[in-house]
């Protein structure tokens, strides 16, 4: 009976569930440029994914027909978004609202495992979500890390719930769920597997300590079954489209062996030193450059000490083993991109625990004026939440017309040519295909970070340019090109706020075939 009570401790009421979903939806709607409040998402990463999604619903196959580097499930997600609307990011916004709601719900469930929040304590969750999603690591919205860290939060919750239940091992049903989530993450971006490897190692250690070998085997085969259930449709899709070799080459071989990785020198050339130094450097450098997120991570680690003496050692062990391996895998190369750190937002949920306990303490301490305390606390949190949203770096695009962006100004020119073929040359796809309502006409349709080690991209693009294959070519203005069969017809600049919240100019050139 005691075990059942502990298991049900994190169950949400209907009010809690509705409140968390609304809070997540409001937050995403304000901060993400995928939402209806914004004219367009100008981020090249999200547009590369969306172009793949648009291609899928028109019969194109990832990697075989359109080359990109992330996993196929990410493109299937964007294909779903394109089915909703292939001319805007409304579908991607709906996906974001769903994943943010998952994060909100399971963050609150984690908090309830180690505290007893009153309904009033829910007031802190919008601010918590605002801080999580307003960080520069979020950028414009729609990247793989943002869509995936909520599901790592689900697995973290499963591990923590097992700790609270005193057994420390998940249920058989949980093992299947973990397998399904692992498969989804693997087929989105396999560097996310660091957390999963740490979680599995934690389960192995706990099983050995309890000599629960039969239980361990039961969890293993159910986990594998969950992984296979989701992986089979992915493989069938590529087999049916005769594109299994393309999947292997683009998603696995090229990413592992050809992706840019600068060489270390001196003592850093020693593998052991390199494998420790590089992840630590990346972690601290990104935490320093994105101080809000770094502060939230530090606050979350400190908050773990509010989980109680009974569970603290196991909680810290679970966090340490998953976090260390995750950081080691995500930052396994010398080069890194800022949003790599964002996948670790899964453990920010811990910060809710001391907040809840402090609010409960306030209401008890000022019992005679508890209503007044609640009003003051709620007002303070709401004001902070509003300020957080208003400081969101993307607000400069809020309610702007589509013509505010060069993508749509260029689209007016491009659409004057029926069935125009376009190329974004030496730049990533920043939405020019979607804005013009056209699809890429060749496999290598934009710049990727692999061009130096995978010359096939530029070789094909240069050959097609020399043949006059494209009607229009889009480039940055900082690069000069003199093509005999193309002339410069337009040059445009856009205001842009980057992931460091710095105002910069993005300037483009449009070339037309003579």
Q: What is the molecular shape?
A: globular
- The first-to-last residue Cα distance is 80 Å
| Structural classification | alpha+beta
Total count of helical runs of at least 4 residues: 19
Radius of gyration: 24 Å
Low-confidence stretches: 1-7
* Helix percent band: 55-70%
Average pLDDT number: 92
Q: How many distinct domains?
A: 2
Order of helices and strands: HHHHHHHHHHHHHHHHHEHHEEE
Q: Summarize the main sheet.
A: 4 strands, mixed
What does this structure look like?
57% of the residues lie in helices and 6% in strands. With 514 residues, the protein is an alpha+beta fold. The protein folds into two domains: 10-396, no CATH class; 402-513, no CATH class. Strands 1-2-4-3 form a four-stranded mixed sheet, covered by helices on one side. A hairpin with a 5-residue loop joins strand 3 and strand 4. Helix 2 runs parallel beside helix 6 and helix 8 packs parallel to helix 10 (213-240).
How do the helices and strands line up, and which of them pair or pack?
Blueprint: H1 2-7, H2 14-31, H3 44-57, H4 72-84, H5 90-113, H6 124-133, H7 144-164, H8 172-186, H9 193-209, H10 213-240, H11 244-258, H12 271-289, H13 291-303, H14 309-330, H15 352-365, H16 370-390, H17 406-414, E1 422-424, H18 432-436, H19 456-466, E2 472-476, E3 486-497, E4 503-513
Parallel strand pairs: 1-2
Antiparallel strand pairs: 2-4, 3-4
Helix pairs in contact: 2-5, 2-6, 3-4, 4-5, 5-7, 6-16, 7-8, 7-14, 8-10, 9-14, 12-13, 12-14, 15-16
């Amino acid at each position: 009976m005691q075990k059942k009570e502990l298991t049900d401790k994190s169950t949400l009421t209907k009010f809690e569930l509705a409140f968390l979903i609304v809070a997540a939806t409001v937050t995403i709607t304000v901060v993400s440029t995928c939402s209806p409040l914004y004219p367009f998402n100008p981020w090249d990463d999200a547009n590369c994914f969306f172009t793949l999604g648009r291609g899928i619903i028109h019969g194109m196959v990832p990697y075989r027909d359109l080359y990109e580097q992330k996993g196929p499930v990410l493109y299937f997600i964007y294909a779903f978004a394109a089915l909703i609307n292939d001319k805007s990011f409304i579908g991607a916004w709906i996906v974001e609202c769903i994943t943010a709601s998952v994060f909100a719900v399971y963050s609150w469930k984690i908090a309830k495992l180690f505290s007893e929040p009153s309904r009033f304590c829910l007031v802190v969750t919008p601010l918590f979500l605002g801080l999580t999603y307003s960080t520069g690591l979020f950028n414009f919205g729609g990247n793989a890390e943002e869509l995936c860290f909520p599901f790592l939060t689900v697995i973290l919750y499963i591990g923590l719930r097992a700790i609270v239940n005193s057994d420390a091992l998940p249920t058989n049903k949980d093992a299947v769920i973990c397998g399904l989530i692992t498969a989804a993450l693997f087929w989105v971006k396999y560097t996310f597997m660091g957390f999963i490897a740490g979680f599995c190692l934690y389960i192995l250690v706990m099983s050995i300590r309890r000599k629960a070998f039969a239980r361990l085997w039961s969890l293993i085969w159910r986990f594998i079954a969950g992984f296979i259930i989701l992986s089979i449709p992915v493989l069938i899709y590529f087999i049916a489209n005769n594109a299994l070799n393309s999947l292997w080459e683009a998603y696995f071989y090229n990413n592992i062996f050809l992706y840019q990785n600068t060489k270390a020198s001196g003592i850093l050339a020693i593998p052991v030193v390199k494998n420790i130094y590089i992840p630590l450097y990346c972690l601290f450098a990104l935490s320093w450059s994105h101080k809000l997120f770094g502060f939230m991570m530090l606050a979350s680690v400190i908050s773990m000490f509010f989980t109680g003496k009974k569970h603290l050692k196991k909680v810290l062990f679970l966090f340490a083993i998953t976090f260390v391996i995750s950081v080691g895998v995500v930052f396994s190369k010398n080069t890194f991109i800022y949003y790599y750190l964002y996948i670790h937002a899964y453990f920010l949920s811990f910060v809710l625990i001391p907040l809840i306990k402090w609010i409960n303490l306030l209401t008890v301490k000022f019992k005679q004026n508890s209503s007044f305390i609640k009003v003051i606390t709620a007002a303070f949190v709401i004001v902070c939440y509003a300020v957080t949203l208003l400081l969101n770096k993307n607000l400069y695009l809020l309610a702007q017309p589509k013509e505010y962006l060069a993508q749509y100004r260029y689209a007016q020119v491009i659409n004057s040519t029926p069935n125009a073929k376009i190329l974004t040359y030496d730049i990533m796809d920043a939405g020019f295909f979607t804005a013009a309502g056209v699809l890429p006409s060749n496999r290598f349709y934009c710049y990727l970070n692999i061009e130096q080690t995978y010359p096939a991209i530029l070789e094909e693009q240069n050959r097609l340019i020399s043949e006059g294959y494209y009607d229009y070519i889009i480039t940055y203005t900082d690069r000069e090109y003199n093509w005999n069969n193309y002339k410069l017809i337009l040059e445009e600049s856009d205001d842009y706020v980057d992931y460091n919240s710095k105002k910069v100019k993005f300037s483009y050139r449009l070339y037309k075939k003579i």
